[in-house]
Amino acid sequence: MTLAFALVMLIPIVVLVYLQTSSGSEQLAVDQAQQSVNRLKNVADTVGAQGPPSKATVNVIIPSRVNSITVGNGSSPGREIIFSLRAAGGTTEIVATTLYNVTGVDLANITRSGTYPVSVEAVDNYNNTGLPCVVVRPA
């Protein structure tokens, strides 16, 4: 009887601790993604302001819950950097808007968690479109 009472008291505590830990790791992933998006945005803005042939390399932390990274409008230049993360309520997007057109090349390869060097380069004529752009790619 005493053992049953102890288990009845212990199970809610274990569940509560699990839920708090899960929520904490989700918040940590969101915070890391926000920091990485802001870091990429700041470097892209700096490189864009300096113009071609300006180039920089920055280390970016990719948290474990990242589904995708979009720079620009997918395959064409745009002004957004988006990290899409898995969250308890669905998908969360962390977005930063840049001052200059940006595009991403081969960023699908760095959606696994870890720290990656990323190259950010200003170009005059992106893919012969005549558009000045900041290209973000794995270093």
Write the layout of secondary structure elements.
Blueprint: H1 2-50, E1 55-62, E2 66-73, E3 76-87, E4 90-104, E5 114-123, E6 133-138
Parallel strand pairs: 4-6
Antiparallel strand pairs: 1-5, 2-3, 3-4, 5-6
Structure description:
The chain has 139 residues and is α+β, with helices and mostly antiparallel strands. It has one domain (2-138). Helices cover 35% and strands 42% of the residues. It has a six-stranded mixed beta sheet with strand order 1-5-6-4-3-2. The longest helix has 49 residues, at 2-50. The mean pLDDT is 85.
Radius of gyration: 20 Å
Count structural domains. Answer: 1
Helical stretch count? Answer: 1
The N- and C-terminal alpha carbons lie at a distance of 63 Å
> What level of helicity do the residues show?
25-40%
Q: Main sheet: which strands, in order across? A: 1-5-6-4-3-2
Shape: elongated
Which structural category do the helix and sheet elements fall into?
alpha+beta
Tags for this entry?
alpha+beta; 6-stranded mixed sheet; 1 helix; 42% strand
A few lines on this structure:
With about 140 residues, this protein is of the alpha+beta class.
